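User: Round two. Same drill as before: sequence, then structure, for each protein.

Assistant: Same drill it is. First protein:
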Amino acid sequence: MTSLTKIWWKSNLPIYNISHSELYSKGITCLLLDVDGTLINRKTNSIPIKVKQWIKKSKEYFSLYLISNNPSEKRISSIGNELGLEYKHKALKPSKKNTLKIIKKLNRDKENIAIVGDRILTDIIVGNRCNIHTILVRKLNKNGLPIRINIILLIERLISFFIV
């Protein structure tokens, strides 16, 4: 993998199994959270209970912000409102413009920020381009469980070897 696709923490877990205290002990105080695939499956509007519980506990440790490439403001605002989080839809990741605007708005040191997502070619690359930590998580299925085999991620890993 190149520096653009370097993963700071490859959890191999769904987001709701990531330890808050372990992240916090690494100096993370702010999380930018991808939505589709990371918090919720693209094919449902129902946020899994485990995700809701993880978000609730996360608020005790971190500033949280949703950042999604999804073009539907209705979908992302609904999720943001349900979780009580600010959001950016149509973020255009891996373009760094919108991510840098969010970082500036949050007024945090970059070394204390991590982006959490399920995709290398969007979430991980934008995190590296913005000089923040990157956390790769397992994609969720419609039932809120981690998928076993993520074909897209396998293809992205192959592609990532050729990105300079």
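Second protein:
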Amino acid sequence: MAVADQERSTKGGLRRSLSVWQAIGLSVALMAPSMAANINPQGTASTVGRAVPLAFLLAAVGVLLVAYGFVRLCQYFQHAGSVYAFVGATLGPRTGLFSGFGLLGTYCFYGVVTASATGIFGTAFLTQVGIWPNPPSWGPFVIVAVALVAAYLLTVVPAKRGTSVLLSVEGVTVALILVIVAVVLVRLVGGSTPDEGTFADRGFTLDVFSVSPGTDVSAVFLGVVFGFLSFAGFEAAATLGEEAKNPRRDIPRAILGTALFGGVYFVVVTAVEMMAFGTDDAGVAAFTASPSLLGDIGTSYIGSWIGDVITLGAAISAFGCCLACVVGASRLVFAFSRDTASEGKETSGLAAVNGEGVPARAALASTLVMALIVAVSALFFGAQAEDTFFWSGTIGTLILLVAYVLTTIGAIRLVFVRKMLPGVPMWQVVIPAAALVVLGYTIIRNVFPYPAYADGAAFWFPVVAGGWLLVGLIAVLAKPVIARRAGAALMAAELGSREAVGS
């Protein structure tokens, strides 16, 4: 790609100014490995018991299979709309708008998840250090509100600065976690575990990669949802396709690199966490009830001060992820608005960018949707911050799996049916095909049999997820003019991609 092409503004005013590391920063920040390792595995343990690392291993395999499709699509197509553009260019504009609306829903619900986690960990840290010794039940929501406002403000500054901050913050907290995991692993192997308490008499074991007797192996796929929740965001770099300096090279590297890192990281960390707590019933129960897995482990294995550090690190990680959610959602809203606008209005409304080339209005709209979800959950359903975290996480993941399915089908059509990327061997079709099997079974297992899934608030998770997707489906069917405009815009963008691939 010529230097002039790298520095130019893309259609609508986005600027090509981001490096591969800044693209990785957005994906890693949205994946939030520091936060996820502290709070997501408990949800998996409640379903699969000691086999949490097995569930995360299956999720890692699924994510790597899905990543193949994103990598191939990004090698051909660069667009701020990510899934919307990929699916729209391969399966048609209506399907693209539908899938993009689904991914937008995931980013909005995940924004709630991460803002809630910021509130949970932030309140816990302030309590532990004595700054806010007796916070009220609504206390975490104060920090949730601060997190959403701050995420919006940081989104409307140039993305180059924002993604640099995300990568730096997450890098520090992940490094701390890896040090703790290494120390604990050495002590487990050497048999020098704490003398008393939950972590006494524990040791290294591979039982964490097998289900307990009497547990249905298929139940592991209920826990896999929390694995996908932890990995979700690995594809976020795709929304920077119009802002990366060398998108055809850097965006695929960012996506694949983030997925590979996440796979190794989550499997190793969850394995050490489960070994530290123990694989017996008492250990699994303590693991499930832990408010901060690595905080509890660090306190017992290293020192009491480590709990405060880990809690603060998890809060920072959660905020970085919230910021990434707002960034990703704003790019999707921007792309929708630009591509479906009537002639002459492609740079107005939610498709407008500020003087820094950032879609500020789209960012504000995305943040307001996240705030609305929190308000409705708290005011009408009495949710606490822990509830908004769990509820929105499950709903967002169910929506995301549908978007992944459509993206994978689109990749198959682009690469192996239309053969738009010359040189890709036909045998590689087994990779996205395997992704469809994993994704499909995970979706089915989490919806059917419905009574086994539903318990209290959980009854509404598939309903809300399906409702969001239904709204998107009705909108694209009821407004054919929107689909026609989007189709024309995607065709023009794809033409540019064909010329670039052929040059």
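Residues 32 and 321 are 5 Å apart (CA to CA).

User: Perfect.
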